[in-house]
Each structure stands twice: as C-alpha cells, then as structure tokens.
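Posted in: Protein Modeling Q&A

I'm a second-year student putting together a small comparison for a lab meeting, and my supervisor asked me to include a predicted structure for TBC1 domain family member 24. I've never done this before, so apologies if this is the wrong subforum. The sequence is pasted below exactly as I got it from our records. If anyone can share the structure token output, I'd also love a short note on what stands out.
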Amino acid sequence: MLSWLQFRRPRTNSSGKKPPSKDLDGSGKNVLNIPILTISESDNWEVSSSSTMKYWQFVDWEKMEPKSALNYQKILQSDCKQLKSMARAGFWSTSHTLRAKAYHHIIHGISCRSVTPDREIYQQLSEKLFGKKKTSTHPFPEYMENGAIPMYCLSKTGVNSVRKILLCIAAHFPDITHCPVLPALVSLLLHFSEDEAECFHNVCRLIAYNDPDKRYIDQTFLAHRASCMTFRDLANKYCHGAHKLIATSNQSLFDIYSDWIMWIFGAGLPFEYAIRVLDVFLLEGYKVLYRVALVLLSLYKGSVPSTPSHIANIRQDIMSFVGNISCHITVDKLLEKAFSIRLFSRKEINLLLSANMSALLQKGISIHQKRMSVHLAVDLDNFSSSIVTGQEMRMVWSWIPERFALFQPIMLFTTSEHGRSLTSFYSQVEGSEPTVLLLKTEDEEVCGAFLSSDWSERNKGGGKGLSFFGTGECFVFTLCPEMERYEWAILHQPKIAKETHIHSSPHLKPPPALATEVPPPVTLAGPGGTPQDPSYLTVPFSVPSEGPPPEPAPRKPPKHPFPASMFMAGGTERIIIGGGGGQALCIAADLLNGWTEHCDTFQNPPLCRDSFRIQCLEAWGIQNSL
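Accepted answer (user: helix_wrangler)
Welcome! Here is the predicted structure, written out as tokens:
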C-alpha cells in the first residue's frame, strides 16, 4: 500500500524544479494513516476503468446471501426513525452487498432538487472531459484541499475512478469552490457503488439536497470555515479539558480546529470506523460529525499526559491519535459515546452556524472565495494590558464565542486612564456588545467576566431598581492563580434548561415575586448585530434598590429555576455579575472595592478573596462590533 503523501498543486522555483512537499506542520514527515495517491498536474493517469463494472450482475444475490436478503427487506419496510436506529447499531455492516443496497435506498430517499445529475449526465460529462483517451493529465479540481484522495480499500483503478468522478462533479457544479471532504466521501461511496455513474449520482444527491432539517456537504470556503468555527464553539462547551489544552499551547487554534472534519473523513479514522460514521451521516446529516469529532477530541485529551509540554505539534498528534483509534475504543463504543452527548438542538446549531457565517462575511470572506486569502487568526503578540499577558488573553479569547474571537480585542476602559468612576465606566463601554471585564486585586489575583449584552440595557428596567439582563453566553473566569471558566449552570442541566427556555419565552411573564418589571427581551447578536436564537433569552430580575453594597448574605437554595439566569446588572452604586444565592462579582461605584461569592447562575466558587480591593480594572470590546 502507498504511504501517506501530500498531494498539492505543484509550484516551480526559478530552476524549474518542484519544491519538496510538506505535511501539516511543514516538517516533510508523513503522519497520516490512510494511503492516498499523489497526482500532480503533469501526471498521466488511466482513464479507462470500471465504468461498466457491476459487482452483482452475474449472481442471484438472494441465493448467495439469504440472511442479508431478508435484512434488506426489513430496511425497505422501515421508516426513517427505525433506519437511524439500525444505522447506529450497525445493522447492515456485516455484508458488503447489504450496505450497498442500504446506501442506494437511503440516498434515493434524500430530498433534493428536482433536477439532479443522473447516469446519463455522467456519461456525457465523462465523454466530454476524457473522450476516448486512455490517459489524462487533468489537474485535480480546485475545490480539493491539497488534492488528497484517500484510497481506503480501493485499488489504483478505483482511485482513478474517484478522480474522474471528482472532475465530473467540478464540471457540473462550478459553484463548488471549496470542499476538502468531498474526495473522502466519493472514495467511501465508490466502495459500495455498482459503477462510476451510480457513485456520481449518489454524491450529486448529497450535494443537491434541499432538506431544511439536514446538512451534508459544505461547498464554499465560507460555509466550511463557519462549520469549523461552530465545531470550536461546541468543543469550548463540551470538551473543556481538551479545549484548554489546545488554548494553553503556543499552537494555532485556527489550524487545529480547521482539521476537525478530516479527523473523520479523509486523513483520520480508519476505513472500518469511517464507514460506520457514514452509515449514520447519510440518515442524520452533519450533526453526527460534530458528535463524533467531540468524542475523538475528548478521547485524545484522555490519552495525553498531565504535563503535555512535550507535544511539539498538537495538530499532528491528534491526527496520529485518530488514525490509531482502534487501540483506544471500538467503533460501537465510539458511536455510543457520540450519541450520549446532550448536544445543542439542530435548530440551535444552525443558528450558531449562521451567526459564525455572518461574522466571516464581516471579516471579508465572500461566498465566492475559493481559498483563505485573509488573516483570520487574532494576533495578540502586540497586545498590551496592565492586568493580563498576551498568553492569558489568548486563553480568554479561546473561551468566547467563535464569531467574536475572529476579531481583535480593543481597550474600552481602564482605571489607570479613565479613573475610578462607575459613570466614566458606563460612558466608555455603552454601545459595545459584547465586553470582557478584567480586574486585578491588590493580592495580585486576576478574574473577570465575558458579558454578552450592552451595558445600556440596564436603563430598560424603568428605574425601579436594578434588573438583571444578558444572555446564556455570559460567563465568569479566573486567570491567576489558576485559569478556569464558569459558564451558565443551566447549560449543564438539560431539564432545567428546557424549563427555563419555556418560562423565558417573550409571551410568558415570570412570577411577580421574582421581578418587579420585565423589560423587552434581550437578543443575542453577532458582531454586526445579527439576531440570535430566542431560546437563549433570559428574563430580567430585579435586585434591591440603590444604596451601599450590603454584606454578602448566606447562600440560600434556589426555589425556582429563574434565579439561575441572572447574568449582569448595573446602577449608580454598583455593578453585579451573576446572581441567585450570591453574586459572582459585585463592584462598588468607586471601582475600588468589591466582593465575590458562589452564585447559582454560574455555580462558581469565589473568584478571588471574598472581599477585595481592586488594583486595576479594564473593559475590552470586540473591534468589529464597535
């Protein structure tokens, strides 16, 4: 078998020679486990292949595999929900022919555009592109990333067929400008296709799907990059340990998370694992890939020593780990873990994806862009703060939602320049959404908060005391002596989250005992004000009227899920972050004194010494949201 080789569009130097190819980290070493065929623009490759080969045309399949034939009848008689259960359990994984027939049945049940390329179109495209030549020098399609074609269990003839199909897809779908996963999908489906034409038709149905409840293939750099950002957001929520490991390294989060889908299809999972994921993917769409990738990331973190400083290249190390996944977990257990994750709903994921796409558009990525030609990673090398280092701010930036992390932090307020006045604080931060609050105590402890809503929202309470506002994306954190983040506790309590979402509907009012006045709901927004899912909205709650900050009261158990949704509040005497049974942060109007304690909203311990004096306080905004 061929070893992994990088397949790139060749460049020539002044001497006319091609430069040596390099792998992901530029070292020239191969770390990927699935063999691929390396073909450059000048290579000749065989065109005539198995275009007319049909693997079951000579036998009576029902006599050859009577049990599989009976199972196929069960597949035909099953509805979508039953088919999903079958796919997760590996119902058709024991027979090659049964899986081929199952794929044919499932793919032809996908809702897609009325005019979808068929066998006849493939024959026409193939004849137009290749004619009757026995060899071809066609370059790989531009939508392929580095031109890698995974071989899996294909012969050289099979790989040539994959290339033909990819070129025909490029000819028929010129709007596909970036799709690095497509070669792997074509390779996998060709294992279970009668011939090239059937494989082409099946892939085209995945490309031309129009089911609003599913996604299959990202077809532009904009969509692909938004998917990578969405996975990073999910990893930030569901794989906190692995995300922290990546963020604390000196390696690019952008590059590492850009590989996520290739962990599954292409460069990562071995064939017997990738094909089981494909079984479910065809029925359930993109969300399955997020689930599997989150499990892979979590398993990788579990395999890393407690002091991972010796890992020179995490990106390469993850890919190597995934390629050897059989040493760590069976495919059945992998899928079991994937479907045990209480992931966001498909609607919420799609809203997050849309918000990330909007942020990319603001960053300058167009829908027609073929490859990355703008700088998407935030540069913190020249970052300057009196409270945190660039590395510490990198950690904070890794925690915030990806649609904001695209943009540079910009200083809005600092006590060293704007003085110690809450009025001055409000005047500097109002109009900015979101903001990051940082403070250093006189004991050199550092903590802060990510605040998703504009501080001007505090004025919508009608002047009848402080009212909490904000959204479920708010969180508090510590940076020194330890780095830790505390999110909205409801995110980790699905039953309460469901109840809170119901009660926080704009059409329902909270009990009078919990709020004296309910201002209009606050909507999540992207850097340019993109509206977000109303299920994240929270109902504001009143806090005691203005006056000197009282001493922290003993924590009381919440009587209702509402108190776990108290994110931020501000008045003339103090600002409060986190409420319910206590306050995560309370800062007095002089911006000199404050306290911290456990609160139900974030389920945090005190973020520093209970009562503290502030050495310095800063507020940071997102450059593109100002």
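A couple of things worth pointing out for your meeting: The CA atoms of residues 327 and 337 lie 16 Å apart. The two ends are 55 Å apart (CA to CA).
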